[in-house]
UniProtKB/TrEMBL annotation:
Family statement: Belongs to the eukaryotic RPA49/POLR1E RNA polymerase subunit family.
Keywords: DNA-directed RNA polymerase, Nucleus, Transcription
Domain of life: Eukaryota
Source taxonomy: Eukaryota, Fungi, Fungi incertae sedis, Chytridiomycota, Chytridiomycota incertae sedis
One MF annotation (Gene Ontology) recorded for this entry: DNA binding
Keyword Nucleus: yes
Keyword Nucleus (UniProt): yes
Chief site of localization: nucleus
Name assigned to this protein: RNA polymerase I associated factor, A49-like protein
GO cellular component, as recorded: DNA-directed RNA polymerase complex; nucleolus
Protein species of origin: Piromyces finnis
Xref: InterPro entries: RNA_pol-assoc_fac_A49-like
One Gene Ontology term from the biological process aspect of the record: DNA-templated transcription
Subcellular location: Nucleus, Nucleolus
């Protein structure tokens, strides 16, 4: 059975080095802040005491409440384990306010007109019309009190600290920037240009193999090729037609290359499809010549937004504005893969009916450098027009431009 210890209570009426109870509002002092208590020299308020403490930024001031106020008396007990006693001491209560030193140092100039303005306002309140009296009251109501600015600055300071804690880090910003890029996964470290982009990230190999090219490879004349490709809007003077024709003229046709070219044509045609056309299976089958169900489903699910289902259970699709640029980026990468990683931007812009500037921006976004052909280079390529021809060239290692964040 444990022994109960007896504790003696001792009332200490000596106020020397007595403890104090203080209430701080908003900002609390640091442990290094030292406080001192000063007694009033006023004989009338001889019990009035002031508590003052300060650090480099803030000055704390508190005044003790009236000692005759029975409601606000506090007693602090100090336990002494040596003699097992608790000494009770009266603890004055201080309501402490704070003052920001930087604000206190700002002294507003006193205008000589201050007294005359006060007199004029008093005269207006006494003899003025209702409109003038209301105007004077509005001015007085909207007058800024300088002494209240310390609380405002403190609140702003606390808000800044709170908001700064949620500012994203550099790594988070870079990650968000990468998510904004409208390009497939890439390898920026490789020195092999063929390893920068992977065809599987644009169209899976099992989908690519389903593209039927038998009918295309059996074409004999330019007119036959043009007729076959007409639903895809590939004209005989276009960059795509030139690449497809060159592939068909090879003694040993590269079927994989030919399928890549057709898929690039699918992407470019997809950009021009309207919403009602996307949701009409007969149109999709007729337009995307040589494609399979897997190809059409892949295009719709990969580049379009699902708009829900109709009453008969059919899924409807729509191409978002942002996806227009991504489709074009993927098509450009495919064209780079089949054209020795060079594209004539000037000619391609005419084919797909967008400005050279817009197409140049898209080519740059996938990592291409833009070069303008000299007269000698134009002559070598058989370009006889007077137009300025720009080429997009992909090089390794890949260097991508910084993305400007949209606010």
């Amino acid at each position: 059975m444990s022994n109960k210890r007896k504790i003696s209570l001792v009332l200490d009426k000596n106020q020397l080095n007595a403890p104090y109870v203080a209430s701080f509002h908003g900002v609390k002092p640091t442990e290094e802040t030292e406080f001192s208590v000063y007694a009033s020299s006023d004989k009338v308020n001889k019990h009035r005491k002031i508590l003052i403490g300060e650090n480099s930024a803030i000055r704390f001031e508190g005044e003790s409440l009236d000692s005759n106020n029975e409601i606000c008396k506090y007693i602090v007990g100090v336990y002494n384990k040596d003699d097992n006693t608790v000494t009770l001491r009266s603890a004055p209560f201080y309501n402490v306010t704070r003052k920001v030193k930087s604000i206190e140092s700002l002294k507003l100039p006193k205008f000589k007109l201050e007294k005359s303005l006060a007199a004029r306002n008093e005269l207006g309140q006494t003899f003025g019309t209702k409109k003038i009296k209301q105007k004077i009251r509005n001015i007085e109501r909207n007058r800024v009190k300088v002494e209240s600015l310390s609380d405002v600055v403190s609140h702003i300071h606390n808000t800044i600290e709170e908001k700064s804690s949620i500012i994203p880090s550099k790594d988070e910003l870079e990650k968000a920037q990468e998510e904004d890029r409208l390009i497939p996964p890439y390898n920026s470290e490789t020195l092999n240009i063929e390893e920068i982009y992977n065809i599987e990230d644009i169209v899976p190999s099992y989908e690519l193999k389903t593209i039927s090219i038998d009918e295309l490879t059996k074409t004999k004349t330019q007119k036959d090729i043009e007729t076959y490709l007409s639903p895809l809007r590939v004209k005989t003077d276009s960059v795509l037609y030139t690449l497809i024709d060159s592939c068909l003229k090879q003694e040993k046709k590269d079927l994989i290359q030919l399928r890549k070219l057709l898929y690039a044509a699918y992407l470019l045609r997809l950009r021009t499809c309207r919403e009602h056309q996307l949701n009409k299976s007969s149109f999709m089958k007729k337009t995307f010549v040589g494609s399979s169900i897997a190809i059409v489903d892949g295009l719709l699910n990969r580049y379009c937004d699902n708009q829900g289902t109709t009453s008969n259970g059919r899924t409807t699709y729509k191409i978002p504005d942002k996806e227009q640029d991504r489709i074009l980026s993927y098509a450009i990468i495919l064209l780079l893969m089949v054209s020795n990683f060079k594209i004539n931007v000037t000619l391609l812009s005419k084919d797909i009916k967008i400005s050279v500037g817009k197409l140049t921006t898209i080519c740059s976004s996938v990592g291409c450098s833009i070069e303008t052909l000299t007269k000698a280079q134009k002559a070598e390529l058989g370009l006889t027009d007077n137009a300025v021809h720009k080429y997009a060239i992909l090089k390794a290692p890949l260097k991508l431009p910084r993305i400007k964040r949209r606010m």
